[in-house]
Amino acid sequence: MSSSLSGASPDYDLAVIGAGPAGQAACLSLNGALRIAVIDEQARPGGQILRQPPRAFSVADWMTGRAYRGLKARLAAFEALSNVDFMGGRSVLGLREAGGAWTLTLSGPSGVEEVSARRVLIAGGCYDLAVPIPGWTLPGVMSAGGTQAFIKSQQLVPGKRLAFAGSHPLQLLVAEQALEAGGEVAVVAFIQPFSTLVWRAITRPWAALTHGAVLLSALGSAWRLFRAGVPLRFGRPALSVEGQGRVSALRLGQTERFECDAAALCFGFMPQADLPRAAGLQVTPARPGGWKTNHDEWMRASRRGAYVAGETTGVKGAEAASAEGALAGLAVALDEGLIDQDEARRRARPWRKAREAAMWFSALLEAVADPGPFSARLPDADTIICRCEDVVLADLQAALARCDEVGSVKLATRCGMGACQGRNCEHSLLSLAGEPHSERSAFTARFPARPVRIGDLAAR
Amino acid sequence: MERLDVVVIGGGLVGAATAFRLAQAGASVAVVEAGYPNIGASGANAGSLHFQLERRFLENGEALADQAAQVLSLNRLAIEEWRRLDAEMGPDLHIHMRGGLMVAETADQVRTLERKVAREVEGGLDTRLIDGAEARIIAPGLSEAVTAAAYLASEGHADPKALTPAFMTRAQTAGVQLLQGARLTAVGSDAQGYRLTVRRGEADIELATRKVLIAAGAWTGRIGELFNLHLPIYPVALLMNVTERAPPMLEQLIQHVGQRLSMKQAHAGNMLIGGGWPSRMRLDATGRFDLDRSAELLTPSLAGNLGVASRIFPPVAELNLIRSWTGITAITADQTPLVGEVPQAPGVYVAAGGSAFTLGPVFARLLARLILDEREDRLSIFSPARFGHLNSFMGGRLA
Ligand SMILES: Cc1cc2nc3c(=O)[nH]c(=O)nc-3n(C[C@H](O)[C@H](O)[C@H](O)COP(=O)(O)OP(=O)(O)OC[C@H]3O[C@@H](n4cnc5c(N)ncnc54)[C@H](O)[C@@H]3O)c2cc1C
Ligand SMILES: Cc1cc2nc3c(=O)[nH]c(=O)nc-3n(C[C@H](O)[C@H](O)[C@H](O)COP(=O)(O)OP(=O)(O)OC[C@H]3O[C@@H](n4cnc5c(N)ncnc54)[C@H](O)[C@@H]3O)c2cc1C
Prior knowledge:
By secondary structure, chain A is α/β, with parallel strands linked by helices. Chain A is built from 14 helices and 22 strands. In chain A, a hairpin with a 5-residue loop joins strand 17 (283-285) and strand 18. Chain A is globular. Chain B has two domains: 3-42 and 161-232 and 334-391, FAD/NAD(P)-binding domain (3-Layer(bba) Sandwich), CATH 3.50.50; 98-156 and 236-332, D-Amino Acid Oxidase, Chain A, domain 2. The two termini of chain B are 18 Å apart. Chain A binds chain B through residues 1, 3, 94, 96, 103, 105, 114, 389, 403, 405, 407-408, 411-412, 414, 417-419, 421, 444, 446-448, 451-455, 457-460, and chain B through 35-39, 43, 161, 165, 180, 241, 243-245, 268, 273, 294, 296-297, 299-300, 302-304, 306-307, 309-311, 316-325.
């Protein structure tokens, strides 16, 4: 492992984790002033929403549509920045602060390396909320987000006939993208009744009005799917996936069964929180699961020199993520003394407005898409909850009956001890243990944020 | 208020196992645990059954090594105890005693091993010095860098996640009352013994007891203060690493005589790598070590620990690390465990320090006898009496 010698000055002024809309916006609002390293697991910048296809295959009509135009323009501007070193294809495993500098441990194709910077912005985005249903661990079951990422970056559909199920309207869009990319859609099923979806939307009329276009596009997708003969189902809470060695059907309750060779589940998203938690930044429980990192009005996190922006602070969509990134960039400029309070405030104003407007909509979407607490719609007792260690619901219930401390249940059952370190099962266990909960009573997030080869970390 | 025979402070291995042995002998016992059973070092350790003298006993000169060799009498008892536990408690503890190798690379290290083996043989252990080739026959993944090893067939490992809960469940079945989420906050004394104030949630609970066992691991020194005692126990933070599950590749416990290393393959297939590399404890608001927060990982420890592991047992280098954690345990001023009654505070017993995963079950058996006023000489060399000078101004009646 190469290491920056202690005492030596940090490699960069700012390290940005994540080259999505938030990370890009931060760099853009800094006007070329600082030496910046931007680290991302993806080979190319873009983040979730603009996941770029690998350079090797050029996709002609990559990400068309009005919604993507502004984001793509910003991406192009970001890629043109000369004060930014983009370090793609590298995962940040951990970060720590000492003597006024942050050191990031990265793993990439050439092994483990360290990068240091005086300040760090965590803009790691979000990931799919895993909701255990019978059969969800069968090969061929993916998250709708993963399915979309696959379609976006490969222009391929992961299966011939896909079934969609969950609580999040995004599945309508992904189902339509799957159709367009040449796939067949067996069904799109919502666990909520149609009336609940609509009711949750109309009780937030302001958000619904200001974001009518987005809502219309979801409705538009629904309409086009319907026209293409795709069955749409609502109010089907008892989902299960069937198959021997691979998914062969999605079942909705006792009576309805849809044959398919791939299933996409879509229950919403959770903020990436491994790095903030392991770095000791304060977090708050997020809906529908996971943790959002706390920040002040300038996106400063609870430790000096650390900033957060985008979905890391709560799932809120690309527009709000961009706005937060820009605010974080201005905060860095302010804290560096590059601009004064007045300038920072003035330049922040449009971003704050944009963020607020977008937050209305994300609150609406969160309400509409909310699958409700896991504990309120438990699957069969033999459903796997921790897929890394094959811990089933009954194991957890038995352990909880003895001691309702999450840490104790983990030790007793191995829930959360596998390769994903609880990223996918912690929220289910917390829900079973009863809410409210605090981060201190949850799993302890530790190094490394991603599995890494021992030999790469070893001193030689 | 009904007076208990014994209140045990701490629901780690030492507390749970001693409570069980006391209850088996008919005593009325309560365990007071600030978090939940096994939340401390007992649930965070490496699970090694160290019966050979550990490297840390050898690195501070011959005099201290001689003194530390006193622990060998206890290690011999511990070997028997673990064999009995396997029969008494069943397969869930994953007790795996298939041998331990402490390896050497350099000529200097081989000489240290020779002296160590001689000491152990004198102390009644059947450790053997073997060469590198024989070590590789026993544990085929060992690298060519290994030139010699001390081999003890009874060493091994067990599952720390299972051991303490197993003792606690049995203790409760035998009548022990467990107060969890309950922190000892104040102590008074009276003619029959002690009155303890325990805070659980928003409420204070009062307990009256004849005797008290302080089994609070790294917190022992702090508990001592409540009894107006100096207990020379120091918290230290260590690093542990675990890989993804792997096919069977290592049956034994591997240690290194010249470097910090302990390595084994746990029953689920994960490789556990530790050996005493330091982490850093955080400080609380008053500037003292904060024992309730996890310690900070130190990168040089991580690289150093994984470095020795990869060099000594190369197959491990190809596995993925999934987690590095830190745990806080207790050491004494002279490295030898502190077990027994505190002379300046009659009826107050302490048990802490040392490799108390290995030794906890045997501490429990002997300590229970001592607490119940049976004759038990095997613990005398570990008695807190050896630090009597620290308490010559302490102890006495408590308010
Ligand atoms: C599958 C999916 C589909 C979505 N579709 C939409 C949509 O249609 N419309 C919409 O408005 N929003 C959508 N979202 C939300 C979308 O992610 C955000 O709106 C927006 O991209 C958030 O920007 P961000 O900068 O916060 O995070 P992201 O764009 O997610 O960027 C974060 C980046 O950080 C990187 N990263 C994370 N952790 C590490 C690490 N440890 N080391 C190195 N790099 C790391 C990731 O690789 C990623 O590129 C979707 C989200 C997901 C997960
Ligand atoms: C990383 C690591 C690796 C180790 N590896 C090994 C090994 O391989 N082999 C080996 O033999 N040993 C090993 N050890 C040492 C071993 O784990 C400990 O010696 C042993 O677990 C101590 O048990 P205990 O019951 O004394 O303490 P603990 O398990 O720490 O229990 C003390 C309990 O006291 C409670 N407590 C504290 N204050 C209060 C209060 N005021 N009121 C009520 N309760 C309180 C705590 O919550 C805690 O549960 C290791 C230790 C660590 C940290």
